[in-house]
Amino acid sequence: MKHIEVVAGIIIYEDRILCMQRDANKYDYLSYKYEFPGGKVEPGETNSQALMRELLEEMGIEIKVSENDFFMTVIHQYPDFKITMHSYICRVSSSEFVRKEHINHVWLKRLDLDKLDWAPADQPIVKKLMLE
Ligand SMILES: Nc1nc2c([nH]c(=O)n2[C@H]2C[C@H](O)[C@@H](COP(=O)(O)OP(=O)(O)OP(=O)(O)O)O2)c(=O)[nH]1
Predict the structure, then answer these.
(1) Between β-strands 81-91 and 2-13, what pairing exists: parallel, antiparallel or unpaired?
(2) pTM score, whole prediction
(3) Which residue in 1, 40, 69, 110 has the fewest CB atoms around it within 10 Å?
(4) How far is the CA of 85 from the centre of ligand 1 (A)?
Protein backbone atom coordinates (compact mmCIF):
# COMPACT_ATOMS: atom_id res chain seq x y z
CA MET A 1 0.00 0.00 0.00
CA LYS A 2 1.17 3.53 -0.81
CA HIS A 3 2.71 5.38 2.14
CA ILE A 4 3.08 9.15 1.85
CA GLU A 5 5.03 11.61 3.99
CA VAL A 6 3.21 14.91 4.49
CA VAL A 7 3.97 18.16 6.32
CA ALA A 8 1.29 20.50 7.67
CA GLY A 9 1.48 24.01 9.12
CA ILE A 10 -0.59 25.11 12.09
CA ILE A 11 -0.75 28.76 11.12
CA ILE A 12 -1.44 30.95 14.15
CA TYR A 13 -2.28 34.65 13.97
CA GLU A 14 -2.90 36.27 17.36
CA ASP A 15 -5.18 33.71 19.10
CA ARG A 16 -6.59 32.07 15.99
CA ILE A 17 -5.66 29.06 13.89
CA LEU A 18 -6.05 28.85 10.14
CA CYS A 19 -8.28 26.00 8.95
CA MET A 20 -8.40 25.32 5.21
CA GLN A 21 -11.16 23.43 3.40
CA ARG A 22 -10.14 20.96 0.70
CA ASP A 23 -11.91 20.76 -2.63
CA ALA A 24 -13.62 17.62 -3.96
CA ASN A 25 -11.23 14.66 -4.12
CA LYS A 26 -11.27 11.24 -5.72
CA TYR A 27 -11.54 9.90 -2.18
CA ASP A 28 -14.82 10.83 -0.49
CA TYR A 29 -13.20 10.63 2.92
CA LEU A 30 -11.04 13.65 2.02
CA SER A 31 -13.50 15.68 -0.05
CA TYR A 32 -14.40 19.03 1.50
CA LYS A 33 -12.63 18.18 4.76
CA TYR A 34 -10.75 20.79 6.72
CA GLU A 35 -6.98 20.48 7.01
CA PHE A 36 -3.82 22.36 7.89
CA PRO A 37 -2.07 23.70 4.80
CA GLY A 38 0.93 21.77 3.51
CA GLY A 39 1.55 18.79 1.27
CA LYS A 40 3.85 15.96 0.35
CA VAL A 41 7.55 15.96 1.18
CA GLU A 42 9.62 15.61 -2.00
CA PRO A 43 12.80 13.53 -2.28
CA GLY A 44 15.84 15.37 -0.90
CA GLU A 45 13.82 17.84 1.17
CA THR A 46 13.76 18.14 4.94
CA ASN A 47 10.31 18.40 6.51
CA SER A 48 10.73 22.08 7.29
CA GLN A 49 11.96 22.83 3.75
CA ALA A 50 8.95 20.99 2.35
CA LEU A 51 6.58 22.98 4.53
CA MET A 52 8.15 26.33 3.59
CA ARG A 53 7.85 25.39 -0.10
CA GLU A 54 4.23 24.27 0.22
CA LEU A 55 3.15 27.34 2.19
CA LEU A 56 4.73 29.59 -0.42
CA GLU A 57 3.32 27.67 -3.43
CA GLU A 58 -0.13 27.01 -2.03
CA MET A 59 -0.76 30.16 0.02
CA GLY A 60 1.87 32.77 -0.84
CA ILE A 61 3.02 32.63 2.80
CA GLU A 62 6.73 33.30 3.23
CA ILE A 63 7.79 32.05 6.63
CA LYS A 64 10.81 30.47 8.27
CA VAL A 65 10.01 27.02 9.69
CA SER A 66 12.53 25.09 11.79
CA GLU A 67 12.61 21.81 13.69
CA ASN A 68 12.06 23.86 16.88
CA ASP A 69 8.53 24.51 15.64
CA PHE A 70 7.66 20.79 15.51
CA PHE A 71 4.28 20.00 17.10
CA MET A 72 3.43 16.33 16.51
CA THR A 73 3.53 13.48 14.00
CA VAL A 74 0.43 11.49 13.13
CA ILE A 75 0.41 8.14 11.36
CA HIS A 76 -2.96 7.34 9.84
CA GLN A 77 -4.20 4.52 7.68
CA TYR A 78 -6.72 5.65 5.07
CA PRO A 79 -8.59 3.01 3.05
CA ASP A 80 -6.34 3.58 0.01
CA PHE A 81 -3.01 4.74 1.46
CA LYS A 82 -1.10 5.38 4.64
CA ILE A 83 0.03 8.83 5.69
CA THR A 84 2.73 10.02 8.08
CA MET A 85 2.06 13.69 8.75
CA HIS A 86 4.45 16.01 10.59
CA SER A 87 2.89 19.20 11.92
CA TYR A 88 4.63 22.45 12.82
CA ILE A 89 3.52 25.59 14.64
CA CYS A 90 3.85 28.61 12.35
CA ARG A 91 3.16 31.98 13.97
CA VAL A 92 2.47 34.70 11.44
CA SER A 93 2.45 38.47 11.92
CA SER A 94 -0.30 39.09 9.36
CA SER A 95 -3.48 37.24 8.46
CA GLU A 96 -2.97 37.96 4.77
CA PHE A 97 -2.48 35.07 2.34
CA VAL A 98 -3.62 33.95 -1.08
CA ARG A 99 -6.04 31.04 -1.19
CA LYS A 100 -4.93 29.20 -4.30
CA GLU A 101 -6.16 25.62 -3.91
CA HIS A 102 -8.68 25.49 -1.11
CA ILE A 103 -12.37 26.32 -1.39
CA ASN A 104 -12.82 28.02 1.99
CA HIS A 105 -10.96 28.92 5.15
CA VAL A 106 -11.73 30.01 8.71
CA TRP A 107 -9.60 31.39 11.52
CA LEU A 108 -10.74 29.67 14.72
CA LYS A 109 -9.89 29.93 18.37
CA ARG A 110 -8.43 26.69 19.72
CA LEU A 111 -11.54 25.69 21.63
CA ASP A 112 -13.70 25.96 18.49
CA LEU A 113 -11.53 23.72 16.35
CA ASP A 114 -13.72 20.66 16.85
CA LYS A 115 -16.69 22.44 15.22
CA LEU A 116 -15.26 21.63 11.78
CA ASP A 117 -15.29 18.43 9.76
CA TRP A 118 -11.54 17.64 9.72
CA ALA A 119 -9.66 15.14 7.58
CA PRO A 120 -9.48 11.97 9.69
CA ALA A 121 -5.68 12.13 10.06
CA ASP A 122 -5.99 15.61 11.60
CA GLN A 123 -8.07 14.54 14.59
CA PRO A 124 -5.11 13.94 16.97
CA ILE A 125 -3.63 17.34 16.08
CA VAL A 126 -6.95 19.10 16.69
CA LYS A 127 -7.31 17.28 20.01
CA LYS A 128 -3.84 18.26 21.17
CA LEU A 129 -4.30 21.89 20.12
CA MET A 130 -7.53 22.06 22.12
CA LEU A 131 -5.78 20.85 25.27
CA GLU A 132 -3.13 23.58 25.22
N1 LIG B 1 -1.72 19.27 3.57
C2 LIG B 1 -2.42 18.41 4.31
N3 LIG B 1 -2.71 17.18 3.83
C4 LIG B 1 -3.42 16.38 4.61
C5 LIG B 1 -3.88 16.79 5.89
N6 LIG B 1 -4.59 15.76 6.44
C7 LIG B 1 -4.58 14.74 5.55
O8 LIG B 1 -5.11 13.64 5.68
N9 LIG B 1 -3.87 15.12 4.42
C10 LIG B 1 -3.65 14.26 3.26
C11 LIG B 1 -4.41 14.68 2.04
C12 LIG B 1 -3.50 14.25 0.89
O13 LIG B 1 -3.75 12.88 0.63
C14 LIG B 1 -2.12 14.39 1.48
C15 LIG B 1 -1.49 15.71 1.16
O16 LIG B 1 -0.94 15.74 -0.08
P17 LIG B 1 -1.37 16.79 -1.19
O18 LIG B 1 -2.08 17.94 -0.61
O19 LIG B 1 -0.16 17.02 -2.02
O20 LIG B 1 -2.35 15.83 -1.92
P21 LIG B 1 -3.58 16.08 -2.88
O22 LIG B 1 -4.48 14.90 -2.75
O23 LIG B 1 -4.18 17.42 -2.62
O24 LIG B 1 -2.91 16.13 -4.27
P25 LIG B 1 -2.27 15.03 -5.19
O26 LIG B 1 -2.25 13.72 -4.47
O27 LIG B 1 -3.19 15.04 -6.36
O28 LIG B 1 -0.92 15.58 -5.47
O29 LIG B 1 -2.28 14.31 2.89
C30 LIG B 1 -3.57 18.08 6.37
O31 LIG B 1 -3.92 18.53 7.46
N32 LIG B 1 -2.84 18.87 5.53
Answers:
(1) parallel
(2) 0.96
(3) 1
(4) 9
